[in-house]
Amino acid sequence: MIVFNTTFHVDAALHEEFVDYMLEVFIPIATRSGLLTSPRLSRVFGEEGEEGYSYAMEFTAADLATLEQWNNEESNRVVTPLLEKFREKVAGFSTVMQTISY
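The structure corresponding to this sequence follows.
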């Protein structure tokens, strides 16, 4: 199982609008094809005094090939509108991980 996580830092003035957008728009579009599943949006707590809020958007994919297919075929439909809507008020980076069972 592959975990695809994108951590976003959001301007404080927009964080509630960002959460609504992620739940109502981003997640439904990102999961529409079925290539990404199990969406989970979480708030990331950091050092006090930081400007803004951080959120982790997590999905799972069956394998790296499935994630690559999503990146090639679907990601622009999700990422481009997000960047157009929030512009420089949101920054993010992605991490790809493999689940290890015990």
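Residues 2 and 11 are 29 Å apart (CA to CA).
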